[in-house]
Each structure stands twice: as structure tokens, then as C-alpha cells.
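hey can u check if this looks right to u? its 386 residues, i copy pasted from the old doc so theres a chance i mangled smth
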Amino acid sequence: MKRREFLKHTAAAGAAVFLGSTLAGCLGGGGAEVKTPIEIGTIISLTGDLGSYGVPIQNGAILAAKHINERGGVLGRELRLIHEDDRTTPQGAVEAMQKLVNVNKVPAVIGALGSGNSEAIIPIGRENHVVMISPSSTSPTLTNADDDGYFFRTAASDSFQGKVLVKVARDMGYEKVSHLYINNPYGVAMNDVIKETLPEEGGELVAEVPYNPGQTSYRSELTALTEPGPEAIIFTGYPEYGSVILRQAKELGVDAQWILAEGLKDPLLVEQLGAELVEGMVGTAPKPPSSPQYEAFVEAFKAEFNADPGVYSDTCYDAVMVLAKAIELAGKAEGPAIRDKMIEASLQYDGVSGAVDFDENGDVTTDFEKWAFEGGKIVSKGVVSI
């Protein structure tokens, strides 16, 4: 079973609304009676290959819960987050989900981050009637997951980003392209999109090479990638071992243009490799919106954590906010009731990351941007239209 459709009711916009009346309208004020908190789980990669992403994403959830509780909580009750680290592994995600479901008895979970980890926990959520909202799982295969309507995501599918990566390569004049991708659902699904799209856009995929995290050497993968003489290499992966691969590519004298998927849009690459090595590499990622809500979010995030938001900090904030709205609409913190109000809640919430309007598959759409490493910094190069 998939999802239900609801009529759209647009929430008011503006920074004041974001920090004030939207929350007040979405969330119930508290009374004198002391009520038990509503607990929801988070499954975030705080260690492992996505560890550098995890803390800023988790902070998005923490900030949302703070704003919700400052406005009276959910159904007049405190919203409390229970954090679990999945170690960027499917097994870690399963262990975290089992703990949250069986020990903490949560009705909903924010997570996981990686698509393979979300894929691993969906059966547990489905069987135990627990709503799952990923802020960053982008594999197209999740659109048709056997989730009984319990899985949603506030980040757009890679069915869009794969086309954007191809568009960037072709716009830069490259015809012969190789694709290096992490051997998990995220990477495999991205490869499927690129393999289908590149020939349609007049390009040629001359090599498609998967890699597994945890190796000390990737020279054989890099040799297979470069033997056909690509002009550009699209790279779908994560920072920890992505930095190992890029360093070894430099040592081997690989001189093709690198085009990186959003999983590698991370200052960690500059820290580990140096500004000179990554200079001129380009990539794609969801475009941060230029809206009063987003600007207010950034300001609040900096004030709270003394740091800029990271990739998917905003979508994680939105995941918590939509979940809180769904609980309000359901009138109770129970998984099936929350699930049945998620689409309606998303249509009544004006997200900081942009529109968070779930379709019947629990998916959203977004704009993508091109970015580049320049002088040790990540610089936006504008929206990419497809």
C-alpha cells in the first residue's frame, strides 16, 4: 500500500512566520498540566564514511525540536529526540532502529542518511508501524519501496540529480565520461540514471566502476576508470574514502575533470587533501533556497551552534517540523495515525529547504545547483536546469 492524497492548504511565508506564527499555528500550546514527552528517534551517521555530515544534520533536528518546544511542544507535550549513530552501515542502522522500536517504543524516526541504511530499516518500520523520514536518502529505488506508506524523505530523488550531473558534464563540453560510484543503493541507482541519461544527451559512458569503502588502495578501480580515456569523471561517493580515492588519482596522474555528486560536497575534502588538489573540481547538490524562511533558519542555526548549516541540515529541520505537524493533525503520537496525516502536514508547512510537498510516494522535488572548489572554499555556480 502506498499513500493517500490530500488537498493543498498553503501556509503563510516570511521569516517572522517561520520563527513565530507558523509554529504557533502548527503546534499546540502547553497548559499547566505536566505531560509526558513525545519521544521520536533519530538515526544519523555520526561516525563512518558519512560521519563528517552527521553532526550538522543532527543539529538541524535539534534546532527544530528546540523551536517546537519553545512554542509549546506538540499536543502540549515536549518533543524529545533520542539519537542513535548508525556508523554509516546498514547493520548499524538496523541495530539503531531495533533499539528505538523495541526499547524506546518511538512512533517515528528521523533517518537514516544513506540510502542503503534507509533501505535496511524500512522493513522494521513497516512491520512495527513506525514512520520514517529521511533528510538525505536519495536513491530512486526508494520511491517504490515496500513501505506500506511509512517512509518519506525531504531530499529529492537522484532520478533528478543523475540528470543534473550529466547536464553539467555536457554543458562543459565533455562527451566521453566515466562514472565512479560507491557500491551501495545510492551509487548503483545513480549509475543507472547516468547510464540511461548520458547517451540521450549526446555523451558516451566509457566506464562505470563501483568501489567499496574500507580499502587502502583504489588503484585498480582508477585504472579501469581511466583506461578508456574519459574527458570527465563523475564521482558518486562519500567523503571519508572519497578523499583516499582523489589522493590516489592525483598520484596516478589522472587529469580528467572531476564532477562530484552531493555526497562529496564537503569541506572535509579540502582539510584532508588541501585546496590545491581539489581546485577546479565541480559538483552538484540541492540548491539552498533564497527565501526569508531559509535566511532565518541559517541565522538561528549559527546562533545555536556557532557554525554554518551543512548539506541536509535544512531538510532534517524540515523533517522534524513536518512530523510534529502530522502528530498535531493526528491528535496522537501513534505511527499509523501519523502516517495518514504526513502528506496533509507537508502541504500545510512552508519548509526552510523549500517546498516539502510529499507526493503519493513520499517524495519531494527540488532545484539543483552547480558548485566548485575555488581557493579552498565551496562556491555556488548557479542553478542547473534540466
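The mean pLDDT is 92.
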